[in-house]
Amino acid sequence: MNRNSEHEPYKEAKELPSNPGVYQFFDKEGRIIYVGKAKNLRKRVSSYFLKNQENRKTAILISQIDRIRHIIVDSEEDALILENNLIKQFQPKYNILLKDDKSFPWICIRNEQFPRIFYTRRVVKDGSNYFGPYTSVFMARTILEVIKQLFPIRSCNLLLSDSNIAAKKFKKCLEYQIGNCKAPCELLYNKSNYNQDIYNAKSILSGTLSPVFGFLKSAMHAASERYDFEKANEFKAKIQILENYKSKSLVCSATLTNLDVFSFHEDEKIAYVNYFRIVDGSIVTTYLLEIRKKLNESREDILSFCMVEIRRICQSDSTEIILPFLIGYNLTNTRMSVPQIGEKKKLLELCERNGKMFMLERAKNESLKSPVLKKNRVLEKMRTDLKMEVLPHWIECFDNSNISGDFPVSSCVVFKDGQPFKSQYRHFNVKTVQGPNDFATMEEVVERRYTRQLKEGRQLPDLIVIDGGKGQLSSAYSILRKLGIENKVTLLGIAKRLEELYFPNDPIPLYLDKKSETLKVLQHLRDEAHRFGITFHRTKRSEKFTSSELLEISGLGPKSVEKLLVEFKSLENMKSVSLPDLSRIVGKERAVKVIDYLKGQGLKQ
């Protein structure tokens, strides 16, 4: 959007100082709609009004600016921090949005006499020390367990004030008896020793293990020199526990000391900033921040915002920061660099790999939620698994139904884009086949279906599925060859027992993973064709049974007649059936009536 010199905000922009600082845009209702930082306030803010904005959202932002407010700061670092704080405080409409609203676990060392160490998700500004955030509860609890094994830190929430302890209000508990606590509530463990344990616990939580190793080794040697070998062995066991913990942490380099590492990835809507904190050559903290974009923010602006936010959350005071690119701002007494070779470059690449994997995993999860993306993904998977040349947008599946050759019918169900398209389902009354002959039945219905499709000029399916093994598949394939369309569609058969997939002229079946989405679609097709065919078959049987003369018998309904004819096929067959056999089907009372009726019709029992 082009702004002219008469526009009031533009006049305000021209009068801004050239100092570093933070600017705020307000709308007519007095709401803050955007917060930004600048090394030169006048130059940065004036740029919004002196050029056409290609980004539509930026143009809309400028049209809503009613007045501008600025805050001058002493340094670029102050501008970074102030911008971060104002965005979080006011959450302006057009600023990037922190997408990460999860409450990560922390480990707290409570600000109290004989401090407790515990796991929490709430950070309270009461002077306590917080370590984290941890990306998993398991990791936080593992570290707490290590500290518990090393040091007898109390776990109770008693108020251990000097007056309460002097008044002997507390008694040592079971934790003391089993060796997990040394009862500071009765001053059986003095403050000096307890505070030394707290100091060592802080070192572990900070990732600085050297002081803890030094303390334990000194204590072990001192105990050994005074011939207290049992105590010395306890310290040796604790050193081993700490060694095991150290071996499980990710050591990236023995030469790298304390530094922060950031990586940056983005797609159209979201930016991902991944963070590693390195202490004594090991990764002690990882964190990932998601940012939902609002305007056409530069990657430098997004990374600088996230860098300040993550360092605040993780309480980092590292004086060296590794970045994937320079952000144009500096922090006091802190060196920022973009490594090109060496161990720092490898560390940056590790951070980038983790950030990229998270971004790809998130995109995959989003695609699973989107019906359109899921549909395309499933169709593409089917095309690959079944080695098709086109996506199977239209699939037709055939199944035969009969009982010992009686009432033979066939069904054809249609799936469009992997879902049932029920308005296109079709039934077939078998006309030319006598008796139970699935192969001939399959030939008849496939020929009738596609002869008509070709005659009417309709589009052929991308995939034809035959519910059956190699025999039914061969029958269908012979008809497709007869019609000259065997190379225009993909044909396969699915056998029920082992879910084998057969292709024409290929004796070796294809087996798909039981969790495969392709197999699930084919199973759904097969089950739907079977259900649709069985339903039609039952209807045909019911129509036949409804017309039976047995319905003339008082007390005998259509369902009882159906049961009798399914079991014995015809009235003629019933003449040799005993009363107990008839009773088993319809009960004794009805069976007697059937026998009496058959006798009356001249059919002797």
Describe this structure in words.
The protein is α+β, with helices and mostly antiparallel strands and 605 residues long. Among the domains are: 8-76, GIY-YIG endonuclease; 259-367, Nucleotidyltransferase, domain 5 (2-Layer Sandwich), CATH 3.30.420; 381-541, Nucleotidyltransferase, domain 5 (2-Layer Sandwich); 548-600, Orthogonal Bundle (DNA polymerase, domain 1), CATH 1.10.150. Helices cover 44% and strands 19% of the residues. The strands form 4 sheets. Strands 13, 14, 15, 16, 17, 18, 19 and 20 form an 8-stranded mixed beta sheet that branches. A 6-stranded mixed beta sheet has the order 4-10-9-8-11-12. Strands 2-1-3 form a 3-stranded antiparallel beta sheet. Helix 4 packs across helix 11 (299-313) and helix 9 runs antiparallel to helix 10 (229-248). The longest helix has 30 residues, at 517-546. It starts with 7 loop residues before the first helix and ends in a 5-residue tail after the last helix.
Fill in the keyword field for this structure.
single chain, 605 residues, alpha+beta, GIY-YIG endonuclease, Nucleotidyltransferase, domain 5, six-stranded mixed beta sheet, 19 helices
